[in-house]
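User: Structure please.
Assistant: Input sequence and predicted structure:
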Amino acid sequence: MASSKKKEDSDYVEFFKDMVKNWKILLPCLFIAGVVGVFVALWIRPVYKVDALLQIETKNNKNMGMMAGLGSLFATASPAETEIELIMSRQIIGEAVEKMHLQYDAEPLNKLDRLLHREGRMEVHQFEVPWSKLPAEETGKPWFAVAKDSVTFDLLDHNGKKVLTGTPGQTYRTPYAGDTVSFSVYSMEVKPGQKFAITKKNRLNAIGSFKGAFSVKEKGKKTGILEFSYQDIYPDRATTILNEIATTYLRQNVEQRNAEAQKTLEFLEKQLPEVKAQMDSSLLKFNTYRNKVGSVDINAETRLVLENRTKLQQDLLALQQKKQSAIRLFQPEHPTIKTLEEQEATLKRELAANSSATKKLPATQQEVLKLTNEVETSKILYTTMLNNIQQLKLVSAGEVGSVRIIDFAEQVNKPSKPNKKIIVLIALVIGFAFGAALVLLKSKLSNGVRDAHFIERETGFSVYAKVPKGNPNGTKGTRPLAVVEPDDVAVESLRALRSSLEFSMSEGSKPIIGVSGLIPGVGKSFISVNLAALYAGLGKKVLLIDADLRKGRLHKEFGIKRGNGLSQILLGEATASDVVKPTEVDNLFIMQCGNVPPNPSELLGSNHFTNLISSMESDYDLIIIDTPPIMLVTDAALACRVASQIVMVIEYNRHSIDAIQDGMNQLLKGNSTAHASFVINKYEHGHSDGYGYKYGKY
């Protein structure tokens, strides 16, 4: 687990280093993303959100007792959910859309004004065009309104033709296409020249657009408190629209409940004459029978049966009315409804028992009892109906609905969105992700070799040193880095190279080292100069030869003016004693490249060059030949013919293994007996294949 965590940390470090190394890719991505984020944040119109609170009042019968309260706990339907669906209906929203003229839209067209948040505003209250009289391809195209000044505008049709000139607050009707165009602007806040696109949505589209900015939700669980919210680019319009929705819903709720009461009242008033006629008929039958049979003595038992039956019928009628009221509030399977049904069944059984007791009485008394019961029942029904009619009249006159507005919407000054900081931050994150993806893609597509072990395994030659980035010129002023900063990390790596070369030199071999690289810029001159300085530091007399006859530059490293050099010796125009010059480093001498000859390859491949090097072996303990890049010209292979040690400098993560193998094969073509090795220059520590050490001063 520790090893896995360490590897993961190493991956993060490597990723971070890759990002820093490729800052030229990452920084432009971040800059462009930041600019885009700022532009988007400024382009998006500010949106203001307002809200209002309403309460849904459930009018349960307060006399239903504990069973009603327990039943509400198990109710599956929430009154708030029903009301939310009603609020979101086209009946409610459609009325508000039409009343607030939300089907008309006047959109500002100036892009710069939008970016600077100084757009004008125009509220259109009427825009009717005889589209049926226009060609089909022109139907529905926007018209335009152009502000002439703060109080005057021109209306242009979809072709840009002027139709009318007007001012806010007036409704204009003008002939157009054989019919009439109606246009009205309620108000406008504009600057001269600002242009608006005028469109009209059909009713369904306008309602759909409104629903996209409008929401209703219940606050809490079964609280009956509804929160309305609406978003608009104008806070005052958002406030007005939301309050209109709330009041429209409240008014329709009251009207609906009042309509229910009116329907019930009308029904009862229609039934009242029939019930009165039934009561009069029962009373007439009773009086007729009494006149016919004379006075009938009703004993105590008969009176008790009559009173009991009358009471049962009254209770049954009241219970049935209570049940009808409960059915309006609860589902049929609700416990409250079930309880009332059981009570109703009990009363009906008692009435049936009362009827059995009545049959045991004498026939005359039974008939009297029957007629008396009919009279009493019809009186009770008539009286109850009169009471209900009076109550419904009072309810209809004072109905307030089941909705109450707690908080009206109030205008806000701070927009709810966009959050400009979040937008810019998201843009920067996207920019960083895009830049990182490019860096990773570049890394994946790059065929540069990093692993020293992989190079050794594929080529068969050792990697003697991994040199971190140092001074690209190899010197500071006119003195090598190895002399000026001997404790530098790169110098420590070159000391390891020097030790490896000394160990690999067999006795009797020529003390000649040839240094080359694959391509320009890999740092071979840096390696040559500082390796020569390190050998000189051991007290050895070292000659550094610049064999790059085309673009040699070692004389610049030591502050020597270019003049006669190796090329002039090979051309017979100068001698070695005239060309070799001392440097500021003890025991280190340099032979510069000289003036550019017409035939560098022929000179380096001549016997004259071989003889020159052989003649100088006795004068110096070590000769280091700095050669041109092997992949460009054959000069390097020709110059390395005389070397016993060949060092190829490659740059970290730049060359493919095929290029490395090909370059080494080219160098060894003319000198297969030489000992060859690699130096990885500009090495980056911290990767899985490299050293984890960094040297410091002791």
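Residues 4 and 10 are 10 Å apart (CA to CA).
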